[in-house]
Amino acid sequence: MREALPPGSTIGILGGGQLGRMLAVAASRLGLKAHIYSDEPGCPAFDVCAARAVAGYDDEEALLRFAGAVDVVTCEFENVPAKALETAGREASVYPPARAFAVAQDRLEEKEFLRRLGIPVAPFAAVGSRDELDIALKGIGFPALLKTRRFGYDGKGQVVIRSEKDADAALAAIGNVPAILEGMLLFEREISIIAVRGRDGAMRYYDPSENVHQDGILAVSKVPAPSGAACTYAAREIAAKIAGALDYVGVLCVELFQQGDGEPSLVVNEIAPRVHNSGHWTLDACAVSQFENHIRAIAGWPLGDPARHSDAVMTNLIGAEANRWPEFAAAPDTCLHLYGKAEARPGRKMGHLTRLHPKT
Amino acid sequence: MREALPPGSTIGILGGGQLGRMLAVAASRLGLKAHIYSDEPGCPAFDVCAARAVAGYDDEEALLRFAGAVDVVTCEFENVPAKALETAGREASVYPPARAFAVAQDRLEEKEFLRRLGIPVAPFAAVGSRDELDIALKGIGFPALLKTRRFGYDGKGQVVIRSEKDADAALAAIGNVPAILEGMLLFEREISIIAVRGRDGAMRYYDPSENVHQDGILAVSKVPAPSGAACTYAAREIAAKIAGALDYVGVLCVELFQQGDGEPSLVVNEIAPRVHNSGHWTLDACAVSQFENHIRAIAGWPLGDPARHSDAVMTNLIGAEANRWPEFAAAPDTCLHLYGKAEARPGRKMGHLTRLHPKT
Predict the structure, then answer these.
(1) Which residue, among B47, B281, B296, would best test binding to A if mutated, counting the most A CBs under 10 Å from its CB?
(2) Whether pTM exceeds 0.95
(3) What's the complex ipTM?
């Protein structure tokens, strides 16, 4: 293993959204500098970094210059082009590994990867044509979810098929791109686990959160999830298997469906090779947050204690909800986070609240 | 009262040390930008801000340009020249008020201000000459502390006088500048209280910490202090009286000696018109830190809940101690903070640790 990057080193971050912003702040806590690369001049992370690069993710020269100016490169979003990672990798170490992005960027590859590891997933089939959709629907039944293989997030790029009549419209709705059909599972709740793996293979796990989505966007994450200890251990085992298979370095989020309320029966919904919205509560309820642990992992530092000192409920502030900040700022036991985005467009994540409660 | 500064506004901070760094990060949490003004090009706060100005504190043009570019001005150190505050004040609101700096910058004015408010202080006398020192020593007795009136911090600019023989050497040691002689008090412990006052006069108080100094520099702050509830209320009353008399806005620290272990008997040692080292534990043990509450106060926001979710022990990392960061990073329940200073000079504050414990 290479030596840890000493304080004063520079973390290069591809992407300048709120996740990059929180990563940059976490780096500063450790005496590390952040250099942000983004294609948006006014992006949130630019307000809290030591250096900035504004260029496209296909600008090879800018990427090489950026990677040459930093000590390690990471990403704050999963849809970074493979070519950008490869280019940056010529000048600096890039974590997490490119393979993790390849898997997470393609829902079909992701499902196949998980199935090969023996990890339960919903029934699925590749859909490249109307004929293949018919065959897939026969195998999987109704209702089913048709999803684009690539560039899906926050409920985008997916549509429910309730009967054969919906099939044409569904293909049109997702733009007739390569897709995957998934069976819709009955489940008790959605949970996620945030895990972190160091360059030496060490792993740490945050407590799983229970997540509630609205309109396909995460609305609320609660810890502890009511899923129980057996479920926590099962979730950790799944995260460890995935991280090990990818030789992963950094924070990884695994979203799961919990079926039944007794013995844990977990099905992986998707994986995110990055810090994750469902782990924002770790900023305020843990000694070391997911953001700091990601920085520690990629910098080769000892991983931090993920223990939780408080129970927490994290609520996203979407679009105009953020305009209620004076009310949220005055609430007791409440940590208010605003991301510095100028325009409160509908569906846009503008900030979040974490309410802390004594640990039960 | 003027309206609160909305998210997206810019906080101007005079000074770029670790306090400015932590203020800038706190501003970012609320969706506010930080513009840092410092006379040192490589200062710690420059790594985490949206805009920077490098110029002297006597550069009127630079100060006007800076104040014109921000929405409010504050300071991260107390020895900012009165003229700089006055200049900035022509272009922007400046908080805390200039009067608070005038009082805190001169130990004689500070003691006289406190005495006028009926707040207990050590016996003291102005010393402008060798003759005045003799007279003061007769009134105050031995041992006594001779301190420069201005520019003292971290135990600098003060010397103990144990007998008449020390008098000449003491005056020479502090450079024969205008001074104050103070009686040395017996006390049980040193505590401090961090208070915050909003633009509307609202006040909030953090729990007092017990502080241990080494070589005149703060070494450790512990909460809760073992001083008890009556002492906490007495400390709050003192802080409220001081803040009210100064029409204060922002975070104020009051350092106190607690005499006796029974009924609280508090004597004010000094006041600091800024966020304070003895309040660093609030970053990790409270929903809203002293840094965020200072930003909220000067921005006209509702003050945040200062309640403490954990007990905490904050330890400063001075000079080469910070080189032990790999060991501190690996410790459980420990929040490690490094300030991004390149050179670990002896006596220099390089970072701090906060160890969290379940609340007793």
Answers:
(1) B47
(2) yes
(3) 0.95
